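[recover] target loaded
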């Protein structure tokens, strides 16, 4: 668990910085006002103050958008683990900027620090679920993948507790509250990761982890062989369009569900519901948030990803309708305040059953090694963009719609429920190769040209269509494949079909540019295999 635990620190940082800015809003606004007054010798007007505060909050999501879109660049160049460690430079920089902003009397440092920590969080939302999904054995992949979401909700809960005015959410300590992101980064950098086998033994509770080690080695070999796929190729290739579309919609189902609207404006919602201490009610929602993430961790491998996601979406839709009814009748029926609180807690609980954790780690399951980094970049970009839109637009839509604003989220939740039922496959207990194979079959991969498949899938998954109309899989066992190629070539070229792997495959005379390319590629594979085996090509 050490490797996964160290990685999930990045998730905790993301959650912490999502919620940390809300509690000390009043004292930070006073700091901005004082700084402005010292510079300009007059108090700041309310419009300017609101604008600066809004930028301080929203710039975090802007940084997340840029960071998430850069995931593929970092992973392909530096690898998963090194990328996570390098990202901590951003965490240190942001902690320094925000922590010393009051001392420097610069609210600009606060805004820049929020942007930098947003960059860090955007990168972490790609690095962490990708790394955890790849080091986890198949039987535990869903449970360990849920730890990413658990780290996020624990971070949010920490921010809510630390932000209490009597603790750190006051004039003297708010810089430390925002600069706290320094400490988890130190812990992650200082971690000494155990060897893979010992970690797996602890995960499985068994000394025999040979099957899991074999799967991880196979994944590593495939990563070495498989061509890196760019973001445009994800949308151009018919083999990737369906899984990337699923990944995007699942990310949108998380953010457009309305969960962030509830957390961003939970205090005002509880005030409307008549709660005397809304801050503590918000912390209670955070506790429910964390508790049901733990529940999801234990049931995801039993119930399956698809089923839990649909249960969560349906429960959230019901809770949103209940919340709308309660808030709209609150003035006429005061006891509806209790119903609205139950609806909010139910909304949060069902979110953590499915839409909270599942969209993060299912991206790693939908793609093989080659396209995975680019897929995480696209999925993360979609998530952060939707997060930004909800955060900026909810308050204005609420002004127009009032308590009926959650009807909009209800409609979206029902759409995502229908989409999940018809389009999202169940990935529980299936290896990465099995999941990718299912998408290849649904895309009609065998109908595409060898060039298209080679470009899309890499060597490990290509099917080369020979001019003899024989489809031969080119995969991880080159000698047996070349033997079959030799047999097919022998029939066309007058050989006895000896299947000699030491001789180049003889195909029928190519009569078209496509056949020339096929013939050339097969011979290149043969030559490469012979050279790797140390065989003489003369």
């Amino acid at each position: 668990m050490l490797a996964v635990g160290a990685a999930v620190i990045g998730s905790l940082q993301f959650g912490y910085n999502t919620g940390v800015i809300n509690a000390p809003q009043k004292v930070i606004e006073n700091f901005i006002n004082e700084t402005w007054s010292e510079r300009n010798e007059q108090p700041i007007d309310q419009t300017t103050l609101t604008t600066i505060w809004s930028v301080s909050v929203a710039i975090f999501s802007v940084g997340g958008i840029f960071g998430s879109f850069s995931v593929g660049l970092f992973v392909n160049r530096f690898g998963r683990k090194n990328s996570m460690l390098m990202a901590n430079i951003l965490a240190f920089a942001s902690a320094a900027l925000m922590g010393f902003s009051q001392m420097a009397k610069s609210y600009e440092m606060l805004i820049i620090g929020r942007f930098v920590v947003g960059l860090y969080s955007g990168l972490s939302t790609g690095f962490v679920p990708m790394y955890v999904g790849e080091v986890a054995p198949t039987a535990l992949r869903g449970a360990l993948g849920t730890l990413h979401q658990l780290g996020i909700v624990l971070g949010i809960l920490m921010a809510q507790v630390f932000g209490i005015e009597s603790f750190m959410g006051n004039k003297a300590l708010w810089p430390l509250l925002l600069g706290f992101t320094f400490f988890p980064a130190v812990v992650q950098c200082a971690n000494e990761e155990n060897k893979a086998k010992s970690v797996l033994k602890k995960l499985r509770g068994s000394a025999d982890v040979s099957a899991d080690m074999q799967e991880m080695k196979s994944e590593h070999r495939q990563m070495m062989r498989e061509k890196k796929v760019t973001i445009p190729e994800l949308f151009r290739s018919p083999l990737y369009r369906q899984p990337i579309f699923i990944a995007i919609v699942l990310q949108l189902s998380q953010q457009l569900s309305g969960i962030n609207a509830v957390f961003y404006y939970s205090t005002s919602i509880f005030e409307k519901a008549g709660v005397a201490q809304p801050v503590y009610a918000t912390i209670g929602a955070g506790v429910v948030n964390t508790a049901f993430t733990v529940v999801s961790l234990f049931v995801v491998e039993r119930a399956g990803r698809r089923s839990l996601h649909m249960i969560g979406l349906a429960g959230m839709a019901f809770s949103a309708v209940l919340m709308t009814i309660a808030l709209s009748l609150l003035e006429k029926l005061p006891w509806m305040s209790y119903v609205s609180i139950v609806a909010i807690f139910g909304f949060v609980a069902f979110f953590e059953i499915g839409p909270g954790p599942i969209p993060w780690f299912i991206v790693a399951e939908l793609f093989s090694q080659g396209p995975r980094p680019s897929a995480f970049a696209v999925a993360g970009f979609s998530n952060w963009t939707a997060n930004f839109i909800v955060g900026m637009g909810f308050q204005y839509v609420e002004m127009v719609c009032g308590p009926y604003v959650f009807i909009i989220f209800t409609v979206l939740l029902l759409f995502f429920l229908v989409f999940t039922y018809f389009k999202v496959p169940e990935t529980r207990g299936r290896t990465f190769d099995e999941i990718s194979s299912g998408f290849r079959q649904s895309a009609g991969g065998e109908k595409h040209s060898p060039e298209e498949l080679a470009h899309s899938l890499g060597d490990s998954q290509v099917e080369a269509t020979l001019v003899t109309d024989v489809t031969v899989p080119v995969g991880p066992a080159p000698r047996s494949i070349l033997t079959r190629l030799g047999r097919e070539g022998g029939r066309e070229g007058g050989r006895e079909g000896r299947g000699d792997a030491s001789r180049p495959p003889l195909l029928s005379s190519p009569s078209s540019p496509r056949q020339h390319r096929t013939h050339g590629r097969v011979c290149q594979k043969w030559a490469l295999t012979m050279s790797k085996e140390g065989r003489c090509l003369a």
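[recover] notes: The longest helix spans residues 372-401.
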